[in-house]
Amino acid sequence: MAFQTLPQGDQKGDRPWWLIAFVVMALTLGIVIFVSDLYTQVFNTVVKGLGVTVFVTLIGFLLATALGLLIALLGMSDHMALRQVARFYVEVVRGIPILVLLFYIAFVGAPALVALYNLVTAPLISIGLTDAMVVRDFSLMWRAIIALMIGYSAFIAEIFRAGIQSIDKGQIEAAKALGLSRSQRFRLVVFPQAIRVIFPPLSNDFVAMVKDSSLVSVLGVADITQMGKVYASGSFRFFETYSIVAYVYLVLTIGLSILLRGFEQRMRTRMRD
Known about the structure:
By secondary structure, the chain is an all-alpha fold. It has a single domain, classed as Orthogonal Bundle (MetI-like fold), CATH 1.10.3720. It has eleven helices and no strands. The chain is flat and about 70 Å long. The two termini are about 20 Å apart.
């Protein structure tokens, strides 16, 4: 069927008429952008930030996934101290809004890291082998990436933990009986099965990060939202500008959702076979 790899409307097997409506709307606005000089100008300005949005999202999500997996493994450690550290990290980070975390990393964490770097390298600085670092040397974009990494890693850690713990204990015991080491059990038995549980919420978080990457505009990072904000403040074309900004984000997020859903279904089909 033509709609098998697309998001379904509900559990009753309805065709995704909402998606057809969105495609019609997107094509209509695309035609408007093509024929209108004003909308073309706005679109060309806004998409200049697309590369930054994609870069921030991809790097931030990859780092958040790696850190989240580490936190999840620490949370399932045999050592109580490591479990408590992981739980403390997850609960504290999940309790802080992403925007607050962004400001904290940008204006508190970054200066602290610069001060620590200068303290550690003070002997080299004193003999002229290296220069002292100043806060402005720490890119605002990388401050934003670090904030997104920390903020999302706590949620991703819980996704990994739930997925790994969903594996039947009997299979782990069988792997032990076969003489597999802990790392081999995780690599060959646990993770390949857990990924079926992990992938859907993990892909949802990836799409969510595409949207939350717009928060980096508060630091002046030239992403899609920032480019739209700058254009609107200079031209006072707020309706046209933010309509295009919303359009670009919708195309990105819905397109990604469809691709990830299709990949998820293919992965499930392969595992069943």
